[in-house]
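FIELD: query
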Amino acid sequence: MNDIKTKIERLIDEYNLVNNQIGLCSLNGEYYEAAKIFQNNGIFPTAIVNVFVNQKGKKYLGIPVVSLKDFIENNSMPCVFIDRFTYREYRDEIKKNGYIRGKNLFVDFENKKDIVFLINTSIKQIEIVYKKFKGKIKALKTYTKKFVDLIVGYKIYKDIRIKYHEKDKPIYVYDYSGMGDVYVFCLLLKMNIEKIASNGMLLTVVGGVSVRVTKLFNMEDTVTVIKLTKKESQTLTYLAGLAEEKLNIHPMTPFPANLYTDFYSHYLYGKKINMLEAYSYTMFSLETPKVAYPELNIEESQICKMFEQHDLKRGNTVIISPYANTIIGYEPLFWEKVVEKLKKEGFDVCTNCAGREKAINGAKAFPFPLELAEAVLNYAGYFLGLRSGFCDLICNAEAFKYIIYPDYLIFNSNVYEFCSFEKMKIGRNIKEICWDYDDMNMLQKCIVHSFVNARKYKVEERKNGRR
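FIELD: result
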């Protein structure tokens, strides 16, 4: 995912693609990841391009599906992103339509390789090969990928044991970098740490943001958090799946590419367990999910200063979060109209954006550290956003929160079925809505109506002395 992101953002900058009409073409489904990256860079993909077939009128993830011929004829600056496999398959047809690599056609934004599995490998065998190649891992490049992963994973394991001088403590490997997923994982871990590892544990997570999320929960006395790269975590997960008991290393993964979990197969085939249940059963072996929220102590004066600097009012500001790394959202025009309607109702509106994300027109940029997110929301009073990992982070804030779940199929279900706070029974003051990509005017009306009613309710509470 990070490789695709880096490549696409480089191409956006290098070729100034902001004003181009973007078409995504793939037989392997990579356009799903690409669409999210374009959207988070302020570019809403114009179409899913089908090389031969004209499926005019159909949509996928809210994006129209068109033929290659129609895409060219109906756009002034057409640009297609395509994976290598599809390009090889339809090269002649693509060239015939006037697409040139590096000019208006970009190939291979992800090149997936075949996976070879190594079976019946003992710890003794791993140790022998590890000693042979210790200090020269690159010499393993002639071996199968999974064999290399195993040895690299074992090297990481040994390095952790040596560095932290903890031979007896279990190592738990959480290999997914999604901010919200790490937060949900920690909700369960904080509540159940005594049951899982009463004498403490070493916990590996992917990337700096994941480390910051774990720190919100103040578990330093019992949990030593270790930052790994995605690749390091994947190889350690693979090792854990083969050698869990002997090395006291435990894979804690929500998307088990190398591990089979029956509960996930139940979800994938339509049994519709929610995310908290899936985590509880597959990672923690808990019969009933129980969670503990972080206890945050933030100085109000710090938050007050931030609001004054951005000219935003306490208790009457809607923070909108239109970006998500894991779902396809809505066009900028949708958000602009929502902002316009909310401001007409007297709300201040700002955009929670970071990195390359752009503020929605009419809603000034208001970036803030994730450590302050809950306190910022409580001071603002209101939140509106796509269902993202950020929503998990602020789910327990007192502020009124309106969360939108774009409605499209994933795993025979949709995002709402798996990630709904109502279904997971976590968070508070949350209103959720599952909506497709049609009748955007009605969705805007629903949103504004809910915020106006929420404000009336708060005013009545204050009058009656309940707050």
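FIELD: remark
The longest strand covers residues 400-406.
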